[in-house]
C-alpha cells in the first residue's frame, strides 16, 4: 500500500481542484490518521475511532469532486452514496445497510484484482499452453479417414505410425510454442471456449432485491448450475488475456480474498455520503417518502459502529471513515439530529468560488474544461486558442451570471462555455480557417450582451 503524506495528498488533489484548501487538508489528515493508527498495537488501535468529516458548502464548489478524486488517489475501498436514495421506499429505495455491503463488495473486488495480478504470470503461462493445445492438439490421434486403411494396416505399422505422428506433433508444437512466446502470432485468430457467467436466473431474482436479504443465488446454486460456456473467435493476444484470467481465478484462494477483503473494508474503508442536507430538517412531504429523520436514525448505528451482515459474513463499521457533504442551503447542520451531528466532529466549510478561481478552474486542472473543448475540436482539425483576456472575460461572465441568477458555482462555467462555443462547435467541420483565436471581444460579443439584457433564461439549468 502506497502511503501518501497529507502534503502529498493535497498536492494530488491540487491537480484537479482549485482552492478549498481547508477541505483538502481535512481529508488528507483524516487519511493519514488511519495510517498512523495502523502502526499502533492492537490494544490502542481498537480505541482510536476515525474522525468523520462533514463538508459544508454551496452547490458546485467541489465537494463531490474532492471525494471523487480522493477515491482515485487512495488505495482504500471507497464508495459514494446519495443520502436521498434511502428516502424512497420500495423499488428504488435501498436500506441503509446496503452501503456497507457495497463497500465490502468493492473491497473484495480490490483484493481480488491484487491477488490475480500476483498469479498472473503463472496463469499466463498456462494460457499459452492452452492456446498451443488449440493450435496443435496433442491428442490428435488422426483417425484415419479411410476405415479400410485401418483395417488392413498391421499393429506394428500402426504403432510406428502413431509414434512418428507423435514426434511430428511434438516438433510442430515446439516450433509453434517458440513463435507464440516470441509474440509472432499475436494477431492470429483462434476459437476459444469462454465461461458464460451471465446467468438469467440469477439476474431475474436479483432484480427483485434479493441482495437485501443477503442471498446470492450463485452462492446457493452456483455449484449446481452448469457452467455455461460459449465459443468465441478472438486473436491470440485476446485469448491469452481471457484464458489467463480464467486460469487466474482458479489459482487464487477465494476464502483468503474474502477474509482480506472484509478486513480491508473494516480497517480502511471510506463511505462518502453525499447530499446529507437533503435528509436534514422536518418532513414536509409525507406521502411515500420514508421520513428523513427516519433515515438519519437508520444511518446512525452504522456511523456509530455496528455489525452489518453481508453475504461474506459480518462486517464491523467501527473504523470505517465517513465523509458527508451537503450544501445546507435550505436546511442547516443543526437540523440534523444531534446524534448524527455529534458523529461528524470535523466540519469544513467550502468557500464560494471567486472570479480568480474560475480563471484557474478553466485552465489549470488536468481535465480543465478549456482543454476538453480544445481536444474535442482538434478531432475536426480545429486549432482553438484563447487569449488570456478572453479567459478572464469568460470567468467574469460566469461570475456575473451566478450573481444575477442562481449561484451554481463552477457548473456555470460549463453553460457559459457551451454558449460561447456554440457556433464554432456547430460549424467546425466546414470552417475554412481552422486556427481560431477566441479573444476578449469575441467573448464580450457572445456573452456580455446577453448578460446586459438580462436574458438569462438560457443559463438557468
Ligand atoms: N474547486 C474546484 N476546482 C475545480 N473544479 C471544480 C471546483 N468546484 C467545482 N468544480 C467543477 O464543477 C463541477 C461540480 O462540482 P461538484 O460536483 O464538486 O459540486 P458540489 O460541491 O458537490 O455541489 P452540490 O452541492 O450541488 O453537489 C465539477 O464537475 C467540477 O468539475
Ligand atoms: Mg455534490
Draw up the topology in text.
Blueprint: H1 6-14, H2 21-38, H3 42-47, E1 53-56, H4 63-73, E2 78-82, H5 98-135, H6 147-152, H7 155-182, E3 189-195, H8 200-206, H9 217-221, E4 229-235, H10 236-251, H11 254-268, E5 270-274, H12 292-304, E6 307-310, E7 313-316, E8 321-326, H13 338-342, E9 346-349, H14 355-363, H15 369-378, E10 383-386, H16 388-404, H17 411-427, E11 435-438, H18 440-452
Parallel strand pairs: 1-8, 1-9, 2-5, 5-8, 10-11
Antiparallel strand pairs: 3-4, 6-7
Helix pairs in contact: 1-2, 5-7, 5-10, 5-11, 14-16, 16-17, 16-18
Bound molecules: adenosine-5'-triphosphate (ATP) and magnesium ion.
Task: Please describe what this structure looks like.
There is one protein chain. This protein has helices spanning 6-14, 21-38, 42-47, 63-73, 98-135, 147-152, 155-182, 200-206, 217-221, 236-251, 254-268, 292-304, 338-342, 355-363, 369-378, 388-404, 411-427, 440-452, and strands spanning 53-56, 78-82, 189-195, 229-235, 270-274, 307-310, 313-316, 321-326, 346-349, 383-386, 435-438. The chain folds into 3 domains: 6-107 and 259-349, Rossmann fold (3-Layer(aba) Sandwich), CATH 3.40.50.300; 114-253, no CATH class; 355-459, Orthogonal Bundle (Helicase, Ruva Protein, domain 3), CATH 1.10.8. It contains 18 helices and 11 strands. The model is unreliable at 198-215 (pLDDT under 50). The chain has 461 residues and is α/β, with parallel strands linked by helices. Strands 2-5-8-1-9 form a 5-stranded parallel β-sheet, sandwiched between helices. The protein has a two-stranded antiparallel sheet with strand order 3-4. Strands 6-7 form a two-stranded antiparallel sheet. Bound molecules: adenosine-5'-triphosphate and magnesium ion (MG). Residues 17-20, 57, 59-65, 327, 361, 365, 409-411 line the site of adenosine-5'-triphosphate (ATP).
Amino acid at each position: 500500500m502506497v502511503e501518501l503524506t497529507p502534503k502529498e495528498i493535497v498536492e494530488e488533489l491540487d491537480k484537479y481542484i482549485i482552492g478549498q484548501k481547508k477541505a483538502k487538508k481535512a481529508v488528507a489528515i483524516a487519511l493519514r490518521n488511519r495510517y498512523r493508527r495502523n502502526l499502533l498495537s492492537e490494544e490502542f488501535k481498537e480505541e482510536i475511532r476515525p474522525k468523520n468529516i462533514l463538508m459544508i458548502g454551496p452547490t458546485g464548489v467541489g465537494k463531490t469532486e474532492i471525494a471523487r478524486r480522493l477515491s482515485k488517489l487512495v488505495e482504500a475501498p471507497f464508495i459514494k452514496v446519495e443520502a436521498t436514495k434511502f428516502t424512497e421506499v420500495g423499488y428504488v429505495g435501498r436500506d441503509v445497510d446496503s452501503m456497507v455491503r457495497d463497500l465490502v463488495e468493492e473491497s473484495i473486488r480490490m483484493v481480488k484484482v491484487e491477488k490475480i495480478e500476483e498469479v498472473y504470470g503463472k496463469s499466463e503461462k498456462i494460457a499459452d499452453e492452452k492456446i498451443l493445445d488449440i493450435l496443435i492438439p496433442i491428442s490428435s490421434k488422426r483417425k484415419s479417414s479411410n476405415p479400410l486403411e485401418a483395417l488392413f494396416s498391421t499393429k506394428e505399422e500402426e504403432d510406428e505410425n502413431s509414434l512418428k505422428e507423435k514426434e511430428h506433433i511434438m516438433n510442430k508444437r515446439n516450433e509453434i510454442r517458440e513463435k507464440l512466446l516470441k509474440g509472432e502470432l499475436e494477431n492470429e485468430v483462434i476459437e476459444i471456449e469462454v465461461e458464460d457467467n451471465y446467468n438469467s436466473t440469477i439476474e431475474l431474482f436479483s432484480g427483485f432485491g434479493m441482495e437485501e436479504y443477503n442471498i446470492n443465488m450463485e452462492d446457493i446454486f452456483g455449484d449446481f448450475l452448469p457452467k455455461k460456456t460459449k465459443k468465441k473467435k478472438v486473436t491470440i493476444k485476446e485469448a491469452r488475456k481471457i484464458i489467463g484470467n480464467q486460469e487466474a481465478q482458479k489459482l487464487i484462494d477465494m476464502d483468503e480474498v474474502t477474509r482480506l477483503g472484509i478486513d480491508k473494508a473494516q480497517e480502511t474503508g471510506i463511505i462518502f455520503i453525499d447530499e446529507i442536507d437533503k435528509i436534514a430538517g422536518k418532513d414536509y412531504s409525507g406521502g411515500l417518502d420514508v421520513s428523513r429523520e427516519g433515515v438519519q436514525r437508520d444511518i446512525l448505528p452504522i456511523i456509530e459502529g455496528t455489525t452489518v451482515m453481508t453475504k461474506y459474513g459480518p462486517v464491523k463499521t467501527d473504523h470505517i471513515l465517513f465523509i458527508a457533504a451537503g450544501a445546507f442551503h435550505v436546511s442547516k447542520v443543526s437540523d440534523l439530529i444531534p446524534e448524527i451531528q455529534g458523529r461528524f466532529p470535523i466540519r469544513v466549510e467550502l468557500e464560494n468560488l471567486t472570479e480568480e478561481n474560475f480563471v484557474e478552474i478553466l485552465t489549470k486542472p488536468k481535465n480543465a474544461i478549456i482543454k476538453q473543448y480544445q481536444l474535442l475540436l482538434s478531432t475536426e482539425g480545429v486549432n482553438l486558442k484563447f487569449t488570456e483576456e478572453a479567459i478572464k472575460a469568460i470567468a467574469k461572465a460566469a461570475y456575473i451570471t451566478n450573481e444575477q441568477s442562481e449561484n451554481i458555482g463552477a457548473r456555470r462555467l460549463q453553460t457559459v462555455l457551451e454558449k460561447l462555443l456554440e457556433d464554432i462547435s456547430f460549424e467546425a467541420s466546414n470552417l475554412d480557417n481552422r486556427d481560431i483565436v477566441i479573444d476578449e471581444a469575441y467573448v464580450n460579443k457572445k456573452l456580455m450582451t446577453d448578460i446586459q439584457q438580462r436574458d438569462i433564461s438560457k443559463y438557468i439549468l
